[in-house]
Amino acid sequence: MKKFEGKTVLITGGTSGIGFATAQRFVAEGAMVFITGRRLSELNLGAEQPGENAAGVQGDIGRLPDLDRLFETIREKAGELDILFANAGLGEFASLGQVTEAHFEKVFGVNIK
Ligand SMILES: NC(=O)c1ccc[n+]([C@@H]2O[C@H](COP(=O)([O-])OP(=O)(O)OC[C@H]3O[C@@H](n4cnc5c(N)ncnc54)[C@H](OP(=O)(O)O)[C@@H]3O)[C@@H](O)[C@H]2O)c1
Predict the structure, then answer these.
(1) Whose Cα sits closest to atom 25 in ligand 1?
(2) Is the CB of 51 under 6 A from ligand 1?
(3) How far apart are the first and last CA of the chain?
(4) Cα(57)–Cα(63) distance, rounded to whole angstroms?
(5) E strands present in the chain
(6) Where are the domains of the chain?
(7) Each residue of 60-70: pLDDT tens digit?
């Protein structure tokens, strides 16, 4: 039996980089993997390459309506979630006088919500 057989995994930001590589490893270990990202074209590629046990859900991880839709999709297709890899993130630095509300919203939206 594979290590993650029967487990459902969500990887935020799974369309490229570390998230995509992790999705491939979880699928190889038997998990059902959901990946998210904003770019639909990359998502299609992502859902195709890790294997048939992967599904892509387009969305921005910093937007609550997208998060609701994401978890609704997982609930419908898999019932429950066993593992979350909160991989999508960013670091953008600005000095105090240059920080805008848009900058704050972007950084906290992606990293915290
Ligand atoms: N690589 C490094 O050396 C390094 C070092 C320290 C920390 N990290 C952290 O490790 C994580 C992965 O790094 P990486 O190098 O693999 O990054 P990457 O190749 O740039 O991939 C980032 C992933 O996150 C997704 N993403 C970004 N913003 C998103 C949003 N608002 N909503 C949904 N998905 C979003 C991107 O998909 P879309 O563009 O399609 O949305 C992409 O799939 C990041 O959190 C990064 O900050 C990386």
Answers:
(1) 13
(2) no
(3) 35
(4) 13
(5) 8-11, 32-37, 54-58, 83-85
(6) 8-111
(7) 999 999 999 99
Handedness of CA 99, 103, 108, 110 (dihedral sign): negative
Ligand 1: centre distance to CA 1 (Å): 31
Is the C-beta atom of 40 inside 6 A of ligand 1?
A: no
In the chain, the amino acid numbered 12 is: T
Cβ burial of 68 (10 Å; 0-12, 13-18, 19+) is: exposed
29 lines ligand 1 (CB under 6 A): no
What separation in Å is there between the alpha carbon of 86 and the centre of ligand 1? 10
Mean pLDDT of 56-78: 94
Asked if the 8-111 domain carries CATH number 3.40.50.2300, the reply is no
